[in-house]
Specification:
The complex is a heterodimer. Chain A is mostly beta strands. Helix content of chain A is 8%, strand content 49%. In chain B, helix 5 crosses helix 6. Chain B has a four-stranded antiparallel β-sheet with strand order 1-2-4-3. At the A-B interface, helix 1 and strand 17 of A face helix 1, helix 4, helix 6, helix 11 and helix 12 of B. Chain A: Pfam families: WD40_Gbeta.
Chain lengths: 340, 549
């Protein structure tokens, strides 16, 4: 079809122009620019607490906002809310489906959500009247597994799914408010910007997309990875995006420069990244890998400044608390560890 | 229940290996059921013969490639054998037949491992692989664990030997090299001898061996009649179980085993040693030691095949047109220069690094390390620390994020009679989080309070935003006020916030020393007061004062 060819040529030429524009913006590389800054030095974190209680692989964890509480989900069919400082279990919620892949804690602390191979996002109310934790809503409309979910408030939640879409739900009515379609591979993870106006998603089509929540539009797409993007996060000031992939590298993309700033890789790291989290200042990135370790990177200099080795199986999830005091890692060895 | 520590170790490793087995099987076909196998006996017979022929030819090719030095012994091996049809020639540089286009996660890892394994065996740049004399025999083609660890530390820029052992153990667990006198696939940093696996047996070749292959292998071992090749307990059990399972075709299996033994006998003794150990390592990966009994056929169930995503899907005309309009938007976007971006990242991290507990030690101590929650007590108290107050000066966003900062800013605005801006902004933030049914009502309330004609807390909005907002309110939703909110926020940021930072209210808090709000402090100031005043008071009033303290 001639028209199709023409259109494709047009698309390709615009892509070339964009690449040229991006190159024009590269008056320096991040490495050159940061040459003079203070070195961070070796970062050594120790395990302070081990949260024991799950009976099977832990697939996800999420910190509450401004608290020592965190929630974790495991394929033993339980969602456990921990008080990480005392290691007590505040709630142990049995799930209908044990194939859970993600969990989230609402900023208010009232709700938790989880989902997985049941294609649904189940919302639980922790502050129910009679003290019991019950299912408040089951958000079902995805045609693929639920890979990640994040609350915007007690009334709205965003989910990413294996059906290649992300959805904004209204929790009260249990309906889909917006469907963000555009990825060409399973969406594996998402992260909400600090101002709650945007969110980013990483997918198996090797790209990350920035979405405007209100306008229901994809604002930017970032490519460069050579394999599925498993983990994604915002830099604390909301202007940059960090991604982690099966190709064993992490990349930093800047939203305003609209391109990749730097890649975090090392020849001795061969296993894919499963999860990542930036420290409070953004100077450090903690990335969990399939080889049971967590690598700590100096964000600006792209040097590895530390390793957390303590799990006996794949590190599946990682999170830094809101006050930046501690980081929590969850693993397939069924334990959660708190480090600082 | 006290288990021998060795068994526990094996359990752990076996679990790990099982785990890794699951990963290895990603791209293989499902195993045929035993019943089906018995039915297809005839076909299999021919297949097996072909495979065995290919196997031995393959192995011979391996020998030629791997040990060019010991070529004297391999004269016999270089029989004229017809080249196998399906298997591609192995190049000298890359010993792998991995399809370089394959992008499934396992293959990516295998490629990386194979790159390392190829380099480590390089004649000039790799580890010393040599024949070691021991007791009455010579051990061919081995390298010590310590050598491997050293090479890795030097060539992979690893500083910690523990890390090199960790990576080495992961590579060993996949079967790329193995200890010659153990079934446990891990790397030790000592004199233990290791041998490299033949590329034919590499996991990236992705052929999952069937139980018939395993049966033939075990049967062959029993025929070889050498003490060092005696079956281990678990192997003997496996063999017994397989004999029961394949009772009807055992004769066929026996024949195959015999044929293999015959061919093996023709090979050079050293080559045989090496091959035997490699084959054994191969089976260690695919049929690992199991404490719970025998490797069930069920556990070899295939994990989901990784299908490449619809990258190859050709879009329709609409798709391409959509893509073009999206790309045009991207082109119109203004790209910030890298230098500016780098600068902003550096400033941000520099500013916040002192607040980052992973980089700077916190004062008082981090509650997780010291089990002392006083840090959080201080945070929660009404008296924010100087450091915290300083943070409010970083940006309006920071000031508003902190509840104490928000309060202080509000107080300041009230003193300037311009608090309606902040109150409006906070009201809209709150409305965004309300349940859907309350939104419309809240929107109306906000309009009445802040925007309507003669509103009690009228905010100063430009005509454009005002029009947009009143239009939005025809169908009130969570985001009806976003334009107005952004406008007010910018106003506060550029105007009031700057003045706030210069105000006495803020500066006092920023510069002030810690006020003595403690019990002692109160007592001291009271004492001072009474001392200065008491002399002039009558006794009664003084007592009254003391009582009320």
């Amino acid at each position: 079809m001639d028209e199709m060819d023409q259109l494709r040529k047009e698309a390709d030429s615009i892509k070339d122009q964009i690449t040229a524009a991006r190159k024009a913006g590269q008056d320096t590389s991040l490495q050159e620019a940061v040459a003079g800054i203070t070195v961070v030095g070796r970062v050594q974190l120790k395990t302070r607490k081990t949260l024991r209680g799950h009976l099977a692989k832990i697939y996800a964890m999420h910190w509450g906002t401004d608290t020592t509480l965190c929630v974790s989900a495991s394929q033993d069919g339980k969602l456990i809310v921990w008080d990480s400082i005392s290691t007590n279990k505040v709630n142990a919620i049995p799930l209908k489906s044990s194939w859970v892949m993600t969990c989230a804690y609402a900023p208010s602390g009232n709700l938790v959500a989880c989902g997985g191979l049941d294609n649904m996002c189940s919302i639980y109310n922790l502050k129910g009247k009679d003290g019991n934790v019950k299912v408040m809503r089951e958000l079902a409309a995805h045609t693929g597994y639920l890979s990640c979910c994040r609350f915007l408030s007690d009334s709205e939640i965003i989910t990413s799914s294996g059906d290649c879409t992300c959805v904004l739900w209204d929790i009260e009515t249990g309906t889909q408010k917006t469907v963000f379609a555009g990825h060409q591979g399973d969406c594996m993870s998402l992260a909400v910007s600090p101002d709650f106006k945007f969110f980013i998603s990483g997918a198996c089509d090797f790209t990350a997309k920035l979405w405007d929540i209100r306008e229901d539009a994809c604002r930017q797409t970032f490519s460069g990875h050579e394999s599925d993007i498993n983990a994604i996060g915002f830099f604390p000031n909301g202007n940059a995006v960090i991604t982690g992939s099966d190709d064993a590298t992490c990349k930093l993309y800047d939203l305003r420069a609209d391109q990749e700033l730097i890649t975090y890789q090392d020849s001795s790291i061969m296993c894919g990244v499963t999860s990542l989290a930036p420290s409070l200042s953004g100077r450090l990135i903690l990335a969990g890998h399939d080889d049971f370790n967590v690598n700590i990177w100096d964000t600006l200099k792209a040097e590895r400044v530390g390793v957390l080795a303590g799990h006996d199986n794949r590190v599946s999830c990682i999170g830094v608390s809101t006050d930046g005091m501690a980081c929590c890692t969850g693993s397939w060895d069924s334990f959660l560890k708190i480090w600082n | 229940m006290a288990e021998a520590p060795q068994q526990q170790q094996e359990v752990k490793e076996e679990e790990e290996e099982e785990e890794q087995q699951q990963e290895v099987k990603e791209e293989e076909e499902e195993q045929q059921q035993e019943m089906e196998q018995q039915e297809k006996e005839q076909q299999e017979k021919e297949q097996q013969e072909e495979e065995n022929q290919e196997e031995e030819q393959q192995e011979e090719e391996q020998q030629e490639e791997e040990q060019p030095d010991s070529s004297e012994g391999s004269e016999e091996a270089k029989e004229s054998v017809p080249m196998p049809k399906a298997r591609p020639l192995l190049s000298m540089r890359s010993m792998s037949i991995v399809d370089p286009e394959d992008k499934s996660p396992n293959m990516i890892v295998y490629r990386k491992i194979e790159d390392i394994v190829t380099r480590i065996q390089d004649e000039t740049e790799g580890v010393p692989i040599r024949t070691v004399k021991s007791f009455m025999t010579k051990i061919p083609s081995v390298v010590t664990g310590a050598d491997i660890v050293q090479w890795m530390m030097k060539n992979l820029a690893i500083e910690d030997p523990a890390e090199a052992m960790h990576i080495g153990s992961l590579i060993a667990a996949q079967g790329y090299f193995f200890p010659i006198s153990d079934h446990v696939l891990s790397l030790k940093d000592d004199g233990t001898f290791y041998r490299f696996q033949a590329p034919y047996f590499w996991p990236s070749n992705c052929w999952e061996p069937e139980n018939t292959d395993y049966a033939i292998y075990l049967c062959k071992r029993t025929m070889q009649n050498k003490t060092r090749l005696e079956l281990a307990d678990y192997e003997a059990e496996n063999l017994a179980r397989l004999q029961r399972a394949f009772a009807r075709k055992w004769e066929f299996i026996y024949m195959q085993a015999e044929a293999q033994v015959k061919i093996d006998r023709k090979k050079d003794k050293t080559e045989r040693k090496i091959l035997d150990s490699q084959e054994r390592a191969f089976w260690d990966v695919h049929r690992p030691v199991s404490v719970y009994g025998l490797a069930e056929e069920g556990t070899q169930a295939q994990s989901p095949i990784h299908t490449p995503s619809h990258l190859g899907r050709k879009g329709t005309k609409e798709d391409v047109e959509k893509e073009i309009s999206f790309l045009n938007l991207q082109l119109d976007r203004h790209c910030m220069k890298m230098s500016k971006v780098a600068d902003s990242l550096m400033t941000y991290t520099e500013q916040y690094m002192e607040y980052d507990p992973f980089v700077t030690a916190t004062e008082p101590s981090n509650p997780w390390s010291s089990d002392d929650p006083s840090f959080w007590d201080v945070e929660a108290s009404k008296e924010p620390s100087q450091q915290r107050v300083r943070k409010w000066g970083f940006s309006l966003q920071e000031a508003l994020k902190d509840h104490a900062g928000q309060e202080l800013f509000l107080k300041f605005l009230e003193s300037e009679f311009s608090s309606e801006n902040l109150r409006f902004w906070l009201a809209v933030q709150d409305m965004k989080r309300r349940p859907q049914q309350e939104v419309a009502q809240r929107a109306q309330e906000i309009w009445t309070e802040f925007l309507a004609e003669g509103a009690p807390s009228s905010i100063n909005l430009d005509s454009h935003s005002y029009e947009r907002t009143s239009h939005n309110l025809k169908d009130p939703g969570r985001y009806s006020y976003v334009d107005a909110q952004d406008h007010i926020y910018k106003l506060m940021k550029s105007d009031s916030y700057a003045r706030f930072l210069r105000s006495n209210l803020y500066q006092d808090l920023l510069m002030a020393r810690k006020k003595p709000e403690t019990e002692q402090g109160r007592r001291t100031s009271l004492e001072k007061f009474t001392r200065s005043v008491g002399k002039s008071l009558t006794g009664k009033r003084l007592t009254g004062l003391m009582q009320s303290s």
